[in-house]
Amino acid sequence: MALTNATCTFSTAASNYTAQPFNITWVADLIRHVNQTCQTAMLDSALGIVWIEHIRSLISDPGTPGILSYWYSPWNKYDIKIVLGRLIDYKLPLAVLIFQLPRAPLGKRRLEAFTLLHLVGSPVTSIAGLLYTFSQASAVLEAVRRSHRQLPSPPDEKDCEVLALVLIAYASIGMTPERNVNVINKEAIDRYLSLSAQCLYRTLLTQSRQVGIQTQSPENTDAFRKAARSLAADRRVEKVPVLAALIGFVAAVAIKYAQINHKDYDDDDPQAIGIWSLSSSLTVSWPIVAMFLACIIGVPKSEDSTRRILEQLEEDLNLVKRKLTVDIQYPIRSGAIPIYRPDRFRQRRPNGVLQITPTRESQTPGKVPLWIRIWNRFKFDICALLIVSTGPAFGIGLAALVPPTAWNCRTVDKFVMWGIYAVGWLLQIGVDHLECSTWLGVSLTAVVDFMVVVPFAWIIFITQFGLFNRLGCYTLKVGDVWGVLLPPFTWDIVQKRLDSVYLPLLVGAFILQFLICGMVLGWFWQTTKMYCQSDREPRQTDGELENGRMLGGPPERPRAATPQTTDEVPLFTVPRIGRDSISQTDMLREFLDTVGRNRDSEDKKGPEDNIRPVDNTP
């Protein structure tokens, strides 16, 4: 009898609302009306209104076109002012931060648009590409150091950074320092980079004969340092706009939290929904790490700036003049777009690959465990997936602690957002493994990114416009009964958790992002110094040579190398093409004679002998 009376009483109370869309104010008023008219155990102070399963099935039938329909009732949209306010408060600072991404000027606007689309649509592979770029640059720097350790007087760290940056610049335009070698690997660097920081390896003859260049003249040292300073200045990203956008994004979250914490309850804009919006901001906090890495690597300021700097370097080195112009597809496949690096899965690429560090499979004899092979192949993607997952983890945790706690439509919303990223990452890995042309790979990548952006944007749309503002998002089953935890009845719980639970989660999420940036910076510290080296002229003191060595007096004028007939034969002396009276024919004849003497001296040596450094001292 009590159950029938309760059902009839509740149905009578709800009769005035069942023809209306869901509205928090109306449902709260309905619950208060039931509290006054129904003297049963249907009201609970912690859950708002409580009913048993039989009553819930009567008043929450999905087929009921009214306010108490559980999922499929007409949904009440938020006021347009609230929607625009949330877009400005939460999404606009994030969009400003993303648009600060350094974009390589490759002469095509669609490539710049592709860069932004790839960052938003595939953050996992974007961060993996940045980590791979750091790793390859670190391998180049280590290979240069390794090639100099055999010198009696090794050059300083700065000279190694100079040469490494020049080599990376050659690769970024899709070329190697010489024409006919397509792969710069460990063996090539050890063999051809010689044993000093002033060397560069390229082809002087138009035929298949390939030689290295080695000279210790201060003029060549100056040329490399000048080129490195120009490259550093050309790649440098303006830090102030990026820092301002980053501070704006973090400040927007902090300001909204302060407003929620010092605001009274509002039925039109409940504070619980504000906390859920903050959890969405945590879900997309990965751009902090991506922007940090991208700004360190940098991009050229113009399409031809790197090429012109390298051409000037070769002119300063008095080398045979050549035009460093290649098809745009080669720079794309060689790291010109740092966030797009499908080459991380390829052993060999045409023109400019920097495949230096040998894999563990080649170093470990016997059978390699499966997990090691997986780690070696996907280590950058796994690290990037963990970085991107930190934000959704904090976002899901924050959304789950807003009543109704645990799983609800808001927590599922954040989990689906992370799932979209994960599915997009798997699709992108499949595209990166395809053996296809550069433009086809870019097109397929853009399609995958678009397929990720559309559902992700749809989720943001339905949350901003209030599709989740319905009865099903405020229900929670406790034991055998269901409760409606509307914001008017749970604001005291939210108020208690603001300082003790929500604030530590917000602060911890952003601190973790900055800690990740610090960890990457510490791991690739020497590479960071190479990318961020100063473009200013070094200040010299008395008794200091331009190459950084301290002598007891002023620098001496360099002396020309003299021909030698012993084993200490220099590789060759660099001729000044077009500047001296010697003709090109005589220059090439002298050059070939020098190379021939050098080969004869090498034939007399054992295979275990290495190339010795040039000694120009008479």
Automatic annotation (TrEMBL):
TM regions (residue ranges): 240-260, 272-299, 382-403, 415-431, 438-461, 501-525
Indicate, by first and last residue, each region the UniProt record lists as having compositional bias (Basic and acidic residues): 593-612
Identify the stretch(es) annotated as Disordered.
536-566, 593-618
Determine if RNA-binding is one of this entry's keywords: no
Q: Which UniProt keywords apply?
A: Membrane, Transmembrane, Transmembrane helix
Which superkingdom is the protein from? Eukaryota
Q: What is this protein called?
A: Uncharacterized protein
Record organism:
Echria macrotheca
